[in-house]
Amino acid sequence: MLHALQHGDRAWLFVHADDRMPAGAASRFESLVARREHGEPVAYLLGRRGFWTLDLETTPAVLIPRPETELLVEQALMRIPADRSAHVADLGTGSGAIALAIARERPQASVVATDASEAALAVASANAVKHGIGNVEFRHGDWLMPLAGERFDLIVSNPPYIAAGDPHLLQGDLRFEPQNALASGDDGLDAIRIIVRDAPAHLLPGGWLLLEHGWEQGGAVRDLLRNAGFVDVATERDLEGRDRVTRGHRAL
Asked: Between 110 and 18, whose confidence is greater?
C-alpha cells in the first residue's frame, strides 16, 4: 500500500489510516495484490529489495537478493584490506548486490563485476549510479571470460547451484526468477565447476575464491577446490546452521 501511495514511511500510514484512498492509488494497490495472489515476488512488485546497506533496483531480469548472501559479503570483506587497494571480481553479478556491497565497504578496492545477461548488467549499473558507487566496472560475458589476462586478490560468486530437475524451481518465488540464475546442470554444480577450474589463472598468489552454494553441497564444493589446488579450504554456515559459503586460496 505504501508503494501504491508513493509514500515510504510506515508511521505515516498508521497516522493516516482513516484517510480516503486516492483513486489512482487504489487501482495500483488492487493490481499489486492481484499479482501477489498469483505468486509474483514482492521484490518484483515493488521493484526493489534491500541488501546489506543498499536499496537495490530489482527486476525479473535478476535474481532477488537474499539475506543469506550477506554471509558471502562478510567473508569477502574479512579478506579485503580496508586501508589499501585490492582487485576484486564478482562473477554473475545480477543486480550488483555483492559487488556494490563490497565496493561500498572497501572504497579503495577496484571491483570488476561480470554477467552473461546484458539486461542484468543494466540493472546493476543503474544500482551503482543510484548509490554513487564508482569503484565498480561492469563487463558482459560468462563467468571469467571477460577477465582475460587479469589477476585478482579475491574472486567471489553466487552462481546458480540448484539441480535442473529440482521441483522447487516450480514453486514460490523461484517460478518468476531467471532460471539461468538458479539452475546449473543435473547436480547444480556445473557453474561452480567452471569457476573453480578457471579461477586459479585469474588469482594472484594467495588470492581467495569464495563461493555461495546449496546447503547440501559443502562437501562437494570443498572437494572441487582441493582438487583444483586450493589450500585452507573451509565452509562457513549461515544463520540456520547450514553450509552456505566455501572458500579456498591459491597457494603462495
From this structure: 110
